[in-house]
Amino acid sequence: MRIGIDLGGTKIEVACLDRDDREVLRRRVPTPRGDYAATVAAIAGLVEGAEHELDVRAKVGVGIPGTVSAQTGLVKNANSTWLNGRPLRDDLEAALGRTVRLANDANCFAISEATDGAAAGFATVFGVILGTGVGGGPVVDGQVLHGANAIAGEWGHNPLPWPQREEWPGPRCWCGRRGCLESWLCGDAFARGAAQGREPALERYVDRLARGLASVINLFDPDAIVLGGGLSNLDALYERVPQRWPRYVFSDTVRTVLLRNRHGDSSGVRGAARLWEDGEPVRAQGQAERRAGGGRSAI
Ligand SMILES: [Zn+2]
After folding, report:
1. SS3 of residue 103 by DSSP
2. Which of 28, 60, 82, 266 is the most buried (most CB within 10 A)?
3. Distance from residue 34's CA to the centre of ligand 1 (Å)
């Protein structure tokens, strides 16, 4: 039995997968926003409640916003900013009395969709979250790439490429920089654009997303890109974004496909549970970090 936790900005969700990857339990609680100790306690409570209900002791994987610093072991880059600078893995391990694996939530999403979701069967996959935050996770041959600095796929804090005059320098991002893709492509940005209505908001959003993803294709050249998060429900994206790619991608043809996720909101917890696959373990950040200085960039 594997337990996956998806620690989100508004809710914390738990799911249990059995040996055949069937989901046998799912629960959720509101995230105690701004309260770190209560967040740790809520996660521990969900795990203990699930184990009590199912009468099992499970391996636990946790998808978090941000990532664990290979330097310090503390959370960094989380838009749920009360987690930043905190020893979340150590505290969860102490609370639960076992080793816990943590990984970026977009990476969990990407693992889930590349394994048995919309992008199953594609060799290289880039999973994208378009929600409260914007992030990504690269998967190669079924293995998520964490990277030397545990930030592989952190595409949301690159600047919007090919900016137009009125897009410069762009909105201020919570990370301290301006013009980050996240600040253009997150749910709030889409809502703000729709409220202004100078030019069709969807059209502007499509073009910005096309530019952002074109920069991913130029760098990583994935076979498939899978969209998750609230804005992945916009039907128009799947047709109109690829139509724009030829303007920006440095190639005569663009064979990369843009896919809607299969597991929806469930991919966060499913991918987190998959941080403990049987056989060759997926090397999560928890492990990568213990190898501090190891320097391998791929699993
Ligand atoms: Zn930023």
Report:
1. strand
2. 60
3. 20
Q: What does the pLDDT read at residue 85?
A: 97
Tell me the whole-structure pTM to 2 decimals: 0.88
Which secondary-structure segment (H or E) carries 11? strand 11-17
pLDDT at residue number 265: 84
* Chain centre distance of CA 42: 21
How far away, in angstroms, is 65 Cα from ligand 1 center? 13
Distance from the alpha carbon of residue 145 to the mean position of ligand 1, in angstroms? 21
191 vs 212, higher pLDDT: 212
134 alpha carbon to ligand 1 midpoint, in Å?
9
Tell me what pLDDT residue 118 has. Answer: 98
> Which structure tokens are listed for 297?
């960039």
Q: How far is the CA of 47 from the centre of ligand 1 (A)?
A: 32
Helices (H), ranges, the chain: 36-54, 88-96, 105-116, 181-185, 187-196, 201-220, 237-248, 266-273, 285-290
Residues with CB under 5 A from ligand 1 (ion): 157, 173, 175, 177, 180
Match 């970026």 to its residue by tokens. Answer: 104
Using a pLDDT cut of 70, give the percent of the chain over it.
92
pLDDT value of position 123:
97
Q: What is the pLDDT of residues 73-130, one digit of tens each?
A: 999 999 899 999 999 999 999 999 999 999 999 999 999 999 999 999 999 999 999 9
The alpha carbon of 24 and the centre of ligand 1 are apart by a number of angstroms equal to: 37
- Residue 89: name the closest of 132, 162, 172, 150 by CA: 150
Model pLDDT, residue 195: 81
Asked if residue 77 lies in contact with residue 53, where contact means CB atoms within 8 angstroms, the answer is no
The C-alpha torsion from 189 through 159 and 130 to 147, rounded to 10°, is -160
